Amino acid sequence: MSEQLRAALQLAASGVPVLPLRAGKVPFGNCRACTRNVCGGRPNMKTPGPCACPRPCHAWAAATTDPTVLRSREWARAWCTAAAVAYHPGGAGLTVLDLDNADAIAWARQTLPATRIVRTTRGEHWLYEGVMQSANAVRPGVDIKSLMGYARWLGPGTGAMAALPDTVRALAVKEPAPARKAPQALSRPLTGGQGECRHRTPTYLERGIAMAEQRITEARSAVHTTVYRTFLAVLSTHGRCGCLTDTHVARLFTAAQAKGETPRHCTDAWTNARTALGM
């Protein structure tokens, strides 16, 4: 039994769906019967199992916890040449934040709640309990692997696992069409909330606003999307407890307008972010 298969069986026994990876951290290609999904596979579905192929086809959707499948003759060749074991985080109820460099790790440490961390070749995987849609390049050096995605197994990691925060969910949200028209002269909306404040100190809010300003200021491309996602992240963390003031919002709008955004777009982006969060 190969080292990869042994690791895969141990993971599967704990309820984690697994699959083999080739060199280069890529899944094995579809078999001839499944090439170009001629089998009728449904790779856009959010659950595994696009077809009844007994081979490790369809990338993430091939992930399984069935030891009979993992030991089967159809999978044997793959395990003999496999370079690594991967798993489907969404199938295990998890989301993996793939941080690919030191800057991405620094951002996560300053922005996100502590959770279980797995060291990678170039960075870290931060594991959270909860699922969401996978998304690549949600910010520089950051990918999200959960539903319809796979991550390489690099060990159990260290630390207690936290619940998936809204800030991570917000990274993958695309800005919807403007929810309503707003007067051109409006530069900042009214804010407020009735929820309980969970901030440890006023410094926590100040740091969050400063980091949001910095993220907008440092955007080199996709400014429109960056502004929206930043507003969404700020509101998801600070928008329900009433701590945000017009002064805080004005700082965000000023940073966005300095990057070329119009007052109208700032207002629309803020309104759409509140709508997306049900505020």
TrEMBL record:
Spans through the membrane: none
Region of interest called Disordered, as start-end residue ranges on this chain: 179-198
Signal sequence annotation: none
Organism: Streptomyces canus
Domain DNA primase/polymerase bifunctional N-terminal, residue spans: 8-186
Record-linked Pfam families: Prim-Pol
Cited InterPro entries: DNA_primase/pol_bifunc_N
Protein name (database record): DNA primase/polymerase bifunctional N-terminal domain-containing protein
